[in-house]
Each structure stands twice: as structure tokens, then as C-alpha cells.
Amino acid sequence: MSKSNLLIELYSNLSTTGAITFSSKSLVNKMISQSDLSKANLIVEMGGGDGSITQGIIDAMNPNAKLLVFEINASFCESMKKQFPQENVMIINDSAGNLDKYLEGEKADYIFSSLPFSLISKEATDEILKKSNLALSQSGAFIQICYSYLLKSLFKKYFSQVNASFTLKNLPPAFVMVCK
């Protein structure tokens, strides 16, 4: 799918994508810099979108690691399956709330998320964040892009430690929350 078709899909589904454009390279780099993917065995991404964060993860991860990418938009999934045919990358057309069904008893070293929690129901948010916390390894981290610093209080309900950083080099400017 072309970039212009992906943008049309993005704008057609603002209530589920929660974004006006895809993540910038600077934002992706900011997210990835909060992790050490070279030592990770299992990585999860929630909200694969156009694959910009996925590509950043793949570029930095250990080639023997496994990446599970959750995306509820079928068009985005089809595009990402073509873009990322690697055997260790699994594109999943399902809600991140079903994370536990795909982990097969393993724990994730990192969970990267661009889910629009401001637009997701309280029940779904609760399910996703509870399962994310349970899915992390002891030293793991949940790394979230958000456009409001106020969401930090939401993440503090599920994680004992939440650190925020900011980047202007994205449209709109964004926070990266690192939750442990």
C-alpha cells in the first residue's frame, strides 16, 4: 500500500489510530533509545500503523529476537505483512487486549505502544495496561508515545515507575513514557 493510501486509511480511522500523521524518525529514535533491544528476546509493539516504529525496532533488535506487532486495522496489517516478511516478525490483526493469547507463556522484554489511550474505552485501557504489566519480564519496560503529559497519571495506576521525556520533532510534539 502506498504512503498516500496509508494516510487516507489513517485519516479515515482517527478514532482508532488517534494520530494525524505517522511517527517521525525522531520520535521513533526517542522511543528506541529508551531500550536495549540488542539484548531482548521478545518484543511487542501495540499499534503497528504504517510500520515506522516497527522498522526502528527491527533495525535495533537482536536478529534472534521475536517481535509481535498488534494492529486492529486490517489494511495496515496487510501492508505491514508485505513490508516485514521476516520469520521472527509476527503481524497480528487483533486487539492488544488479547496480548496474553499470543505470548505462549513467555515474558516480553519491551512493549512499545502508540495506542491512543485517550480515545480507548476505560475498560479496554484497563485490560491492555493490566495485561501489559503482567506480560513484562522483571527488567522489562512498557514504552508509550502520547501527546498529553496528563496520561502519566494513568500509567502510574499500572506501573510503579513512570518516566517521561519529550520531543518537539514530531507532529504534534510528543511525550515518551517509560513504565516499569
UniProtKB/TrEMBL annotation:
<protein>
    <submittedName>
        <fullName>Phospholipid N-methyltransferase</fullName>
    </submittedName>
</protein>
<keyword id="KW-0949">S-adenosyl-L-methionine</keyword>
<dbReference type="InterPro" id="IPR001737">
    <property type="entry name" value="KsgA/Erm"/>
</dbReference>
<dbReference type="GO" id="GO:0008168">
    <property type="term" value="F:methyltransferase activity"/>
</dbReference>
<keyword id="KW-0489">Methyltransferase</keyword>
<dbReference type="Pfam" id="PF00398">
    <property type="entry name" value="RrnaAD"/>
</dbReference>
<dbReference type="GO" id="GO:0032259">
    <property type="term" value="P:methylation"/>
</dbReference>
<keyword id="KW-0808">Transferase</keyword>
<dbReference type="GO" id="GO:0003723">
    <property type="term" value="F:RNA binding"/>
</dbReference>
<keyword id="KW-0694">RNA-binding</keyword>
<dbReference type="InterPro" id="IPR029063">
    <property type="entry name" value="SAM-dependent_MTases_sf"/>
</dbReference>
